[in-house]
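#help-structures
NK: newbie question, is this the right format to request a structure? protein is Glycosyltransferase family 1
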Amino acid sequence: MRIVVTGLRGFPGIQGGVETHCEELCPRIAALGGDITVTRRKPFIKESPPYTSYQSVKFKDLNAPQKSGFEAAIHTFRSVWYAYRTQADLVHIQAIGPCIAVPLAKLLGLKVVATHHGPDYDRRKWGRLARFILRAGECFAARWADEVIVISTVIQDILKKKYNRTNVHLIYNGVTRPPRTDSTDQICAWGLTPKRYILAVGRFVEEKNFDKLVSAFSQAHLPADYRLVIAGDADHESPYSKSLKAAAKAHGVVLTGMIKGSPLQELYAHAGLFVLPSSHEGLPITLLEAMSHQIPVLVSDIPANNAVGLPADCYFHYDEAHSIEELTKAIEKKVHHGVAHTYDLRRYDWDHIAQQTYAVYLQTVQREKTTEQTCV
């Protein structure tokens, strides 16, 4: 079975939740027998020379404009044409923005699987045209994709209420259980002490609310040696990312840049508290990664985070008008009086997720073959 996966920037080592999702998922699908090609966006490829494959996953690098809001859509149209030319059995489109290309894929006779990672049109960074594209992509996926995968019950409910689409596959994001990490070389290089820092991880976009986290940290009554660390960066420099970096510098926040692999795992393993103050999420992989290290977590009580089912003291009430005040009090409480929890991660196993996804592929392709045989 020949599969083309598109809608992501690419991998390995490229920042983003969808990118992390595919980096874990695609090699496992290849191991199950799928002939899988991922189309990557050339502006984000940093290897020299560029990889042509990775863990049995083939790569096809295609040009994309470096303009936020349009790069995903245009790249996906090109990827769909590539899937058609190479006679792929199906194309798997990741995220709703790229799903703007679903009608073209169907017109070309391709089978389409779409994964809805979250209502991205709710993100504050998008303008009117970008929001229209995102909503249209969601509509096209819901109405015309052969199969739709959702990563949380929240998204499942959205498709049911808005489009009356009930035949969707609930397949969660996953997390790889990390090996025990005793090394502190990397965090010491950043001037950090184990269990004496708060960690946040993600892209520098408004809905992550890292600016509010910096403000809350600066106002919280914490031990003098406690630090705040934010691991991540902006895909495209923006007024928001510039102001965030300036505020972080003013308050002594450690900015590591975008990191992956052992440095990031070391940061998670030795954090005193992981904080995710987002106003918008799908099913945050960064939260699952923090939980996999069994460290204390504190997250906003938005629907996507509530769906994870954490203990009540792991949430703070997100109110746009009072979020800094609420977050400040919650951080103080977790640092001074936090209770240790053990998180159950069984439903977030990547091997099981890959098997579920591959079963959707088989169902899609076999249905087409059965239809053809019936017609004959």
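mod (FA): yep, format's fine, and the tokens are attached above. The chain has two domains: 2-174+349-375, 185-344.
NK: thank you!
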